[in-house]
Structures are given as structure tokens and as C-alpha cells.
């Protein structure tokens, strides 16, 4: 899941027409890439394309397609196939058609997990992006030891997620945790952070934010640096103060980056797994609390696959997750298109 | 590319599901033809180092490599994936009691020890232990018993003294012949200790499972694998007794194996815990040297019980099956079980050892020289075989979760029971 968030940052296009495209020539930029060059490709007149050359092209691009077929396409299709079966990991398998999907629609635990996943996603992502934006603006200023701070904000991100989960779970421990100890000084009774929906969501969101705020801040920072200075100069001459410049120039120009960050956060957020799992230390960790108050979709998938050994049903959950992410991605793409027309 | 991004996202999900198929392709690398490397997969500490050396000495050319996973849940998941994929598992693998019913569903993926004379040596194992790793038709035995988790009650002498209760283990045992007596003792303890930070028992679920395994010959499933959680009175009785304990305010509400639970051993936040033989090592590790002599062991209410214990199995994917079978037989033999008991305190599942002076006279100095041999043997030999059913684990998880939600005050007993029944139904599939 973190792999998906380790995507290349997208720099915002400048508002001038000549740079309508995007800066970084990576796979990710194509999400918002400009339309392909309309000019037809011209071949050297009279050149005969040899047989070798015709084979060479596809051959050069084939590694991607082979790897994608083996590790991308095949699992997706195979998961679909498994989801149409009553497929016990260690026992029999029988064809059941769409029964798993029908059962899923009526499965309270699934809807509960979906609610938790989206809830934690919103609770984590909104403050995270705001903080990241603020942090990026700060890091863009002329501050002392700027490189140190810029590298520093990425540190939480390169810390092993397991370590983060364990440390935070200790901080939020009911009896001997630092958080409850601190709250105790202002007269708050010890909170069982795992016991309630609000408290568990909050604790997990803090874990996620601690890890990802700095990462997103760096993406924003890259985008900020691509904003041409002359716009600010012009604004200054027009008498705009720093705050006005931030809201009227920086934020609008950052919008494509914001949408990119939201999309990547969505993909990561919907697949949230390790943090809530480690948060529920001890027996039955995978159920995410006694009443499943913080069980995410991937945890439910995992529970069905490896505790229940219902591989068919787990595959159904995987496919529905795939569709959820696809829908969110589609919404995002539509937003990008609308944004263009606004510009 | 948009498409690809989405596809990759889906693929990652799918990859999680099919991980077993891909990852397990990388098995162990075997040395030269005449040298055999046997891979042994266990969880925690089975105390086999000495035995491996012995076996390697008796079988020149054999090297034994053990991988020990600390987390049982993690271990189970990996083992299931490897067995399902048909490669990657060790030559000898440990199977925990709770998982053995799962693996019996695919008994053909394991060597049948009956083909290697296990039926003739049946009396080497407690009858219920041998039956646990044997298919319902009695024709296939996939695992040889290592240890059993004969149940006793571990208690804190210092806390008992503070609460004005007797501390001598025989007197303590007399306080609670039944679970009702245990609750009554707990109420006295709670009144005497005068602190709301110290409780009588760690959590409701351990007590619940102990009671359930004592009273029943089957639990959530009857022998035809029908879910009978609602009609089996043993389940509701165990539930009600546990809830009564919670209502009396005796539980420290600590989930087993959680960080708080671990800390509780050291900090003395609970005074008793149902403890099988293997738990003594765990308590010593968690409570630390500073608490030496504070813990002691008494008989468990209701007479006996079992929590945990394992088997050794040989997957048919092993390319050195003959040596692997020999090793499994050696490790589970009387000598092997006794050696493991000496090393880490795991109680043998071989009843012929129970009357040997070695076991009868065995004491544990950390637990105030408690006669661990006698105490845990009493717990194990009073037990009858209990039929669990293939879906036992998910159903048990569901019921434990519901019980915890009652314990934490999230649900009333009636709501919790209803949730237990509903979730058990969906977990049973």
C-alpha cells in the first residue's frame, strides 16, 4: 500500500499557455498530461522500415507489459475468478456465481469497515493536507538550515510503519500510556483509546498524519518552487500583502498538485492496514476492536482470507475495493477536467 | 496511464490475496546431494536446540535449521499460505492446537503418520491429543503431539497477602473448587485490596475459555459440524459465569497478549490468571526478575483444562520426507518431550511420563518452588476430548470479541450475547 503513495510529484503547470503541460516526464504526470502532440509523426521519406526495426520497438517496451501482465493484470483477473467461487484456502472450491457479491451487499461488517475506512481517511487527510501546505509554505521561506528542515520532515515517512505503529500504540496505551498520563495532569480520566470509535479513529489518524504530512509537504514545496516569482512581484506592486498573495496566487496554482495529493492519499487511505492492526495489539488484532470500531476494509479482507479461510469472499472484498478506488479516481479525473476549464 | 494507476491499485489488493502463490515460490536451497538440510518452522520457543544437536550427531550429513516466528497469528497465516500453495513450508512444521482443525481439511498435504506406525504407538499421547490431529474417519493423523497446555491458576502471593487472603498454594486451591467460589474469592480480594487499579483477574475471555473447555464434549459445533452455539448450554453457562465475574468488578479488562496485558504481569494490575504450563515461561519473561517469588501456582477451579499445545507435522511438499518424519518422531518421543520440558517448561503430552519422578518432582523456582509437574499434569489428565469443528477459530474470535465488548461496558450482557450468536453465524459461513 505505501508503494502507491511513493509516486512522483506532479508539478503544477504555470498559467501561461506555453507551459500548459507538466514538468516531470514520469508515468504519474500523465494523469494530468496535456493532450498528445497533434502533429502527425513524419517518417524519413523513402526509408524502408526493416523487419528488425518493426520487432525491436515492441520488444523494447515489452518488459513493462510482461511484468504488468504477471503482477498486475493476472492477479486482478484471477481475483475476479476466485471471487465467483466458494473457495476455501485449505479445502474445497465450488462455483457460486455472484453469491459472494450478493452476500457482501447485506454484510454489516463490510459496510462497517467501509465506513471506518472512509471516516479515518477524511479525519486523517483533511488536517494532513492543511498542515502539509502550511509546512511547505514555511519551508519555502528563507529560514536557517533550510535543507536540514526539508530533510527532517521526511524522516517520519522513512521510519518503518511497524515501528510507528508499536510506538504510537504504547503512547496511547490505557494504563501506562504517555497520552493518558499527560491528560491525567489536567484531570482527564484514562481513556481506553481502542474502546471507542472516535478515540480509535483519532489515534489512528494521528499515526497516519505523523507519517505522511512531511511527505506531502515536500510535494507541495516542489510545486511552490515552480510558481514563477514574477507573479508575486506583480502582486506586490499591486499592493497585495503576503496573506493575500498566498490565497490568490499560491493556492490556485497549487490546485492540480492538491488534486494529485488527494488522489494518492485516497489510494493509500482506502488500503489502510498496518496502523490500525498494530493499534489493536494482542489477541484478535485483525477485527479492529471489540465491536470492529476501527476495522478497515483491508483488515476485513485479511480476516476473511486468513482467519475465516474464505478466499472467495475475501477476493470479493478486494474487487469491491478496487471499484471503490476506481470511482474515487474517476471523480478526481473529472475534477481535474473542470479545473482546466476554470483556468 | 490513469488506467494503469487504477489497475496497479487493484493489483496490489489482488497481490495481497494471491501473495502465497507468488512468495512461496522461493523455497529453501538444498546443499549437496548427500547432505540434507532440514528446515523446521516453529513459533515462540519449543526448546529443541539440544535435541537438534543430538539428532545431527546421530545422523551425519543432516543439518537442522530452525525458524522461530514470535507472533503466533503471523505464523499461522504464513503456514496456511505455504501449505495452500504447496511449497515454501519447512520439512517439519509446528501446528498450534487452534489451527489443527483447519489443516485437517487438507490432510492430503501432510504425511499420514499412521503409515509410519503412529497407531501402534498411540499410548504415547493423551487420547484427546492424538484425536485432535486425526481426521474424523480416524484414517489419517497429520500431527504428532508435542506439549499440552494443562491448566492451573497462577496467582500473586504479595497481592493476596495485601488483600488478606491466604497465600499458601494448597489453601488457595481450597478457596475455589468451583468457578462460583472463584468469583466469591475475587469479591473478597477486591474488598480487601482497597485499590481500583488492581483487579482479581486479567480478563474475562481466558476464564470463559477455561470454563467452556471443562464443561463440554463439544462447544460451538456438534460432531456433524452444525453450529450449536445457541442450543449448547455449556456455551451460555460459560458466558454467564464470565459475565458474572465482570459484573462483580473483578476484571482488569486486559486483552490477552496486548501491551497492557504484558505490562500488567510486571506492574501487578491483576492477581490471578488461568495459566497453562507454557505460560509460566511467558510470565517469567514479562514479570521480570524483580517479581521472582511473587507469583505462585494453584489448581484451577473446576479441576482441569487445556489452553494451547502443539503438534509437529511433515508437509508432503518436503523433499526429505523420510528424515523429516524421523525428526518429528524423535522430537515428540518421550525423551524429546522431557527435554523440552526441562528447557522451557512445556508440559509433555505423553501420559506415560506423568508418573515419572522427573516430572512429579519438578518444581519452578521462579514460582516459589511450585510443584509444576504435579499441578499441570493434574490439569491435563482431568480433561476429556472436546470436538471443535473446522470453523472453531473464527467463531471463537467472534464470541471473545463480544465478551470483551461486554467487559468494556460497550454492550449489555444480552446485547453482547446476541452479537456473539449473530457473528458466530456469519463466521461459520
Automatic annotation (TrEMBL), chain A:
SUPFAM superfamilies in UniProt: MetI-like (SSF161098)
Gene3D superfamilies the record matches: MetI-like
Region called Disordered, residue ranges: 1-49
Source domain of life: Bacteria
Pfam families: BPD_transp_1 (PF00528)
Location in the cell: Cell membrane
Listed GO biological process terms: transmembrane transport
GO CC list: plasma membrane
The entry's keywords: Cell membrane, Membrane, Transmembrane, Transmembrane helix, Transport
Every ABC transmembrane type-1 domain range: 114-332
Membrane topology, from the record: Multi-pass membrane protein
Membrane-spanning intervals of the chain: 59-84, 118-139, 151-173, 212-232, 253-273, 311-335
InterPro entries to which the protein is assigned, alphabetical: ABC_transporter_permease, MetI-like, MetI-like_sf
Family (UniProt): Belongs to the binding-protein-dependent transport system permease family.
PANTHER family tied to this protein: ABC TRANSPORTER PERMEASE PROTEIN (PTHR30193), INNER MEMBRANE ABC TRANSPORTER PERMEASE PROTEIN YCJO (PTHR30193:SF37)
Protein name listed in UniProt: Sugar ABC transporter permease
Organism, scientific name: Nocardioides guangzhouensis
UniProtKB/TrEMBL annotation, chain B:
Signal peptide, first to last residue: 1-25
Residue ranges, annotated region (Disordered): 406-429
A Pfam family: SBP_bac_8
InterPro entries: Bact_solute-bd_prot1, SBP
Highest taxon listed in the record's lineage: Bacteria
PROSITE patterns: PROKAR_LIPOPROTEIN (PS51257)
SUPFAM superfamilies: Periplasmic binding protein-like II (SSF53850)
Coiled-coil annotated residue ranges, if any: none
Keywords for the protein's UniProt record, in alphabetical order: Signal
Name by which UniProt lists this protein: Carbohydrate ABC transporter substrate-binding protein
Source species of the chain: Nocardioides guangzhouensis
Amino acid at each position: 500500500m505505501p508503494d502507491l503513495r511513493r509516486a512522483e510529484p506532479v508539478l503544477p503547470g504555470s498559467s501561461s499557455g506555453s507551459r500548459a503541460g507538466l514538468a516531470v516526464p514520469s508515468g504519474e504526470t500523465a494523469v494530468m498530461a496535456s493532450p498528445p502532440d497533434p502533429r502527425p509523426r513524419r517518417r524519413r521519406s523513402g526509408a524502408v522500415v526493416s523487419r528488425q526495426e518493426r520487432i525491436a520497438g515492441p520488444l523494447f517496451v515489452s518488459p513493462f507489459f510482461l511484468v504488468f501482465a504477471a503482477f498486475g493484470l493476472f492477479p486482478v483477473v484471477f481475483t475476479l475468478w476466485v471471487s465467483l467461487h466458494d473457495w476455501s484456502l485449505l479445502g474445497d472450491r465450488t462455483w457460486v456465481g455472484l453469491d459472494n457479491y450478493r452476500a457482501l451487499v447485506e454484510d454489516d461488517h463490510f459496510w462497517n469497515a467501509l465506513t471506518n475506512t472512509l471516516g479515518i481517511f477524511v479525519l486523517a487527510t483533511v488536517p494532513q493536507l492543511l498542515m502539509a501546505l502550511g509546512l511547505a509554505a514555511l519551508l519555502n521561506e528563507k529560514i536557517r538550515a533550510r535543507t536540514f528542515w526539508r530533510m527532517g520532515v521526511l524522516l517520519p515517512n522513512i521510519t518503518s510503519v511497524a515501528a510507528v505503529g508499536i510506538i504510537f500504540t504504547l503512547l496511547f496505551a490505557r494504563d501506562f500510556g504517555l497520552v493518558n498520563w499527560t491528560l491525567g495532569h489536567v484531570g482527564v480520566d484514562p481513556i481506553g483509546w481502542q474502546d471507542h470509535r472516535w478515540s480509535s479513529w483519532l489515534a489512528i489518524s494521528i499515526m497516519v498524519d505523523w507519517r505522511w504530512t512531511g511527505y506531502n509537504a515536500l510535494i507541495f514545496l516542489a510545486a511552490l518552487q515552480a510558481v514563477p516569482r514574477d507573479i508575486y512581484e506583480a502582486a506586490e506592486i499591486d499592493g497585495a500583502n503576503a496573506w493575500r498573495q498566498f490565497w490568490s496566487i499560491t493556492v490556485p496554482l497549487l490546485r492540480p498538485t492538491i488534486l494529485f495529493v488527494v488522489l494518492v492519499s485516497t489510494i493509500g487511505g482506502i488500503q489502510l492496514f498496518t496502523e490500525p492492526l498494530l493499534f489493536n495489539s494482542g489477541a484478535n488484532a485483525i477485527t479492529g476492536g471489540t465491536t470492529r470500531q476501527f476495522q478497515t476494509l483491508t483488515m476485513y479482507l485479511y480476516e476473511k482470507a486468513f482467519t475465516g479461510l474464505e478466499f472467495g469472499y475475501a477476493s470479493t472484498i478486494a474487487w469491491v475495493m478496487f471499484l471503490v478506488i476506481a470511482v474515487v479516481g474517476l471523480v478526481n479525473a473529472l475534477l481535474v477536467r473542470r479545473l482546466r476549464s476554470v483556468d | 496511464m490513469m488506467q494503469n494507476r487504477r489497475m496497479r491499485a487493484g493489483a496490489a489488493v489482488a497481490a495481497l490475496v494471491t501473495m502465497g502463490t507468488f512468495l512461496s515460490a522461493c523455497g529453501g536451497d538444498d546443499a549437496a546431494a548427500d547432505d540434507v538440510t532440514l528446515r523446521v518452522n516453529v513459533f515462540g520457543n519449543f526448546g529443541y536446540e539440544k535435541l537438534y544437536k543430538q539428532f545431527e550427531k546421530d545422523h551425519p550429513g543432516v543439518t537442522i535449521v530452525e525458524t522461530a516466528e514470535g507472533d503466533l497469528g503471523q505464523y499461522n497465516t504464513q503456514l496456511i499460505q505455504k501449505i495452500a500453495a504447496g511449497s515454501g513450508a519447512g520439512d517439519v512444521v509446528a501446528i498450534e492446537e487452534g489451527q489443527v482443525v483447519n489443516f485437517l481439511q487438507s490432510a492430503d498435504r501432510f504425511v499420514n503418520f499412521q503409515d509410519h506406525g503412529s497407531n501402534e504407538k498411540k499410548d504415547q499421547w493423551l487420547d484427546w491429543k492424538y484425536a485432535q490431529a486425526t481426521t474424523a474417519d480416524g484414517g489419517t493423523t497429520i500431527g504428532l503431539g508435542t506439549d499440552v497446555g494443562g491448566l492451573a491458576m497462577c496467582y500473586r502471593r504479595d497481592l493476596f497477602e495485601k488483600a488478606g487472603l491466604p497465600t499458601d498454594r494448597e489453601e488457595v486451591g481450597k478457596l475455589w473448587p468451583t468457578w462460583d467460589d472463584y468469583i466469591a474469592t475475587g469479591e473478597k480480594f477486591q474488598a480487601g485490596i482497597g485499590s481500583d487499579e488492581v483487579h482479581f483477574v486479567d480478563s474475562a475471555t481466558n476464564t470463559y475459555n477455561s470454563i467452556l473447555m471443562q464443561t463440554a464434549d463439544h462447544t460451538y459445533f456438534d460432531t456433524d459440524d452444525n453450529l450449536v452455539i445457541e442450543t449448547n448450554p455449556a456455551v451460555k453457562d460459560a458466558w454467564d459465569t464470565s459475565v458474572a465475574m465482570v459484573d462483580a468488578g473483578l476484571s482488569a479488562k486486559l486483552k490477552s497478549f496486548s501491551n497492557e496485558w504484558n505490562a500488567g504481569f510486571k506492574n501487578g494490575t491483576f492477581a490471578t490468571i488461568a495459566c497453562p504450563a507454557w505460560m509460566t515461561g511467558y510470565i517469567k519473561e514479562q514479570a521480570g526478575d524483580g517479581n521472582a517469588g511473587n507469583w505462585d501456582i494453584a489448581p484451577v477451579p473446576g479441576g482441569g483444562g487445556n489452553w494451547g499445545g502443539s503438534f509437529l507435522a511433515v508437509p508432503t511438499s518436503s523433499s526429505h520426507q523420510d528424515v523429516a518424519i524421523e525428526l518429528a518422531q524423535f522430537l515428540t518421543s518421550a525423551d524429546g518431550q522431557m527435554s523440552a520440558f526441562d528447557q522451557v517448561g512445556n508440559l509433555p503430552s505423553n501420559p506415560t511420563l506423568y508418573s515419572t519422578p522427573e516430572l512429579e518432582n519438578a518444581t519452578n523456582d521462579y514460582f516459589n518452588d511450585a510443584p509444576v509437574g504435579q499441578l499441570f499434569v493434574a490439569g491435563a489428565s482431568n480433561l476429556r476430548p472436546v470436538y471443535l469443528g473446522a470453523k472453531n477459530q473464527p467463531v471463537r474470535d467472534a464470541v471473545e470479541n463480544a465478551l470483551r465488548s461486554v467487559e468494556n461496558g460497550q454492550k449489555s450482557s444480552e446485547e453482547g450475547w446476541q452479537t456473539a450468536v449473530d457473528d458466530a453465524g456469519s463466521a461459520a459461513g
